[in-house]
Amino acid sequence: MRILVTGGAGFIGAHCVHRLVREGHQLCVVDNFNDYYSPQLKEDRITWLRREVDSFDLHRLDIADSSGLLELFEQFRPEVVLHLAAQAGVRYSIERPDVYLQSNLVGFLNLLEACRAFMPRHLVYASSSSVYGANEHIPYSEKDNVDHPLSLYAATKKANEGLAHAYAHLYDIPCTGLRFFTVYGPWGRPDMSPMLFAHAISEGRPVKLFNYGRHRRDFTYIDDVVESITRLLDKAPARSLTWDGSASTSYAPWRICNIGGQRPVHLIDYIAILERRLGREAVLEFLPLQPGDVLETCADTRALEQLTGFAPRVDLEQGLALFVKWFRTYTC
After folding, report:
1. How does residue 331 score in pLDDT terms, banded at 50, 70 and 90?
2. Peptide bond into 120 cis (omega under 30)
3. CB count, 10 Å around CB of 47?
4. Chain-wide mean pLDDT for the chain?
5. What is residue 191's DSSP assignment?
6. Where are the alpha helices (DSSP H) in the chain?
7. Using the 8-state DSSP alphabet, how is residue 296 labeled?
8. Does residue 219 register a pLDDT over 70?
9. What is the DSSP string of 145-168?
10. Is NAD among the key words of this record (predicted)?
11. What are the φ and ψ backbone dihedral angles of 177, each rounded to 5 degrees?
């Protein structure tokens, strides 16, 4: 297939490009290489990809550039669009909401308009487990209410799901939204806990544990995420004449799907694994709950299993061992 991947120099994006090129697909990769975190890490991911799988086209383009995006769609004519570009980060959205509106709303609208003009077979886009917000039903099901986001980042992702539904209904664009749960692994983002904690432990600096370390997170290893995505790409939703009113599906060609590890872990236990793998004891600094944080995440992945026959299976011990092996190589 001809697949356009936005955010292809990002963490999940780079791993998806690696897998999809190896499977023989023709890829057009888009990224704006912004400086939310070190652009060098993104450049290094591309260098890794060029070394591993060189046969993809890279375009340094911001999805907020509507004319540039339309021109790229016209040239490449993607059959499938995998949209992973976004301004990430819950806490940064409190400081710079304007950045999130531009990338996550304007950029996503531009992408939907490009899809309306050129009609790919399937638009698969990144949502987030953060949309569950104040929901206290565990595990999180796609059928749960998501009307109470706790951060602007979560609100933009919820808005993406609504925009996608409108375009699916109005223009018959098959759309699948993926709610990712704390993805980790090699080439991960430096603003997320695996990299933050590994650096702090290695350098003898305090590990900051908000909510006094009582958070529980459903960690999902990157290979499981990529496997889930690749299996979903050719499973575009269709219009339904027998829609049951579920919040995760629709009469329109639209669906939502959780991608998570299904095994929430206390942060203290998570740090203990990192300590063993790094061979150093962590210095812990216990701090109050931060604005925008949720207390616990846990994915119900039955919909993913029904659609693909697959559910994430890499446990945290195994996944962190693989992460630390890469971390030592990349940082030393």
Report:
1. low
2. no
3. 11
4. 94
5. T
6. 11-22, 39-52, 66-76, 90-95, 97-100, 107-118, 152-171, 193-203, 222-232, 267-278, 302-308, 316-331
7. B
8. yes
9. -----SSHHHHHHHHHHHHHHHHH
10. yes
11. -100, 135
Tokens 């963490």 correspond to 11
Pick the CATH number of 2-184+220-261+298-313 from 3.30.1330.10, 2.40.110.10, 3.40.50.720, 3.40.1390.10: 3.40.50.720
Among 312, 309, 308, smallest CA distance to 300 is for 312
Catalytic residue check, 167 = no
What distance in Å separates the CA atoms of residue 217 and residue 90, rounded to the nearest whole number? Answer: 15
Going by C-alpha positions, the residue among 127, 49, 45 that lies closest to residue 84 is: 127
Q: In what order do the strands lie in the sheet with 254-259?
A: 57-60, 26-31, 2-6, 80-83, 122-126, 175-180, 254-259
Name the residue with higher pLDDT: 44 or 213.
44
Structure tokens at 140: 């999180």
Q: What is the pLDDT of residues 175-189, one digit of tens each?
A: 999 999 999 999 999
Task: Taking each helix axis as running N to C, give the angle between helix 107-118 and helix 66-76, from 0 to 180 degrees, rounded to the nearest 10.
Answer: 30
Cα(45)–Cα(39) distance, integer angstroms: 10
Burial of residue 159 (CB within 10 Å: 0-12, 13-18, 19+) is middle
Q: Which of 153, 167, 184, 270 is catalytic?
A: 153
Question: What is the mean pLDDT of the segment spanning 226-252?
Answer: 93
Tell me the per-residue pLDDT of 257-305, one tens digit each, with 9 for 90 and over. 999 998 899 999 999 999 999 999 999 998 888 887 788 899 999 999 9
pLDDT digits (tens, 9 = 90+) for 140-166: 999 999 999 999 999 999 999 999 999
Return all residues near 209 (Cβ < 8 A) that are at least 6 apart.
215, 267, 268, 271, 284, 285, 286, 287
User: Tokens 């499938």 identify what position?
Assistant: 80
Q: 32 near 108, Cβ under 8 Å?
A: no
Instruction: Write down the pLDDT at residue 332.
Output: 47
